[in-house]
Amino acid sequence: VKIPIFAKLSPMVPDIAAIAVAAEDAGCDAIVAINTMRAMKIEVQVGKPVLFNKVGGLSGPAIKPVGVRAVYEISGRVKIPIIGVGGICTGEDALEYLMAGASGIQIGSGVRYRGIDVFEKIYGGIEEFMDANGHSKMDDIIGMARRL
Asked: What pairs with residue 9 in β-bridges?
């Protein structure tokens, strides 16, 4: 049975693009960039970590710039599709990932912050941008920042 294999990469490495290349060379069908970043929060009133495990994964809007940077670096080195992940809550957020080189996006935080209709809102934001700027197909957008 042939099933697609997507490698979800951590941003907590010195050269994420090199790891993406290794995943592509090993036969991965796509790269998912990025996973959460290790983080910690302390409850000041009691002086203890909020999480039982002390540390957890930072996600949401705080990691979007890291994710966009990772997608940009990876897209210059691999030929397989890249799925951009991290802090996508608006059409503009999605456009940043697409322009950096992602050919798809994953939405998680957006549902938490904007509700279940966030998918329509993000799609609408992308469509509005494309119409306003004379783009008729997604290929006009994907990797745009690399072509400048």
From this structure: 33
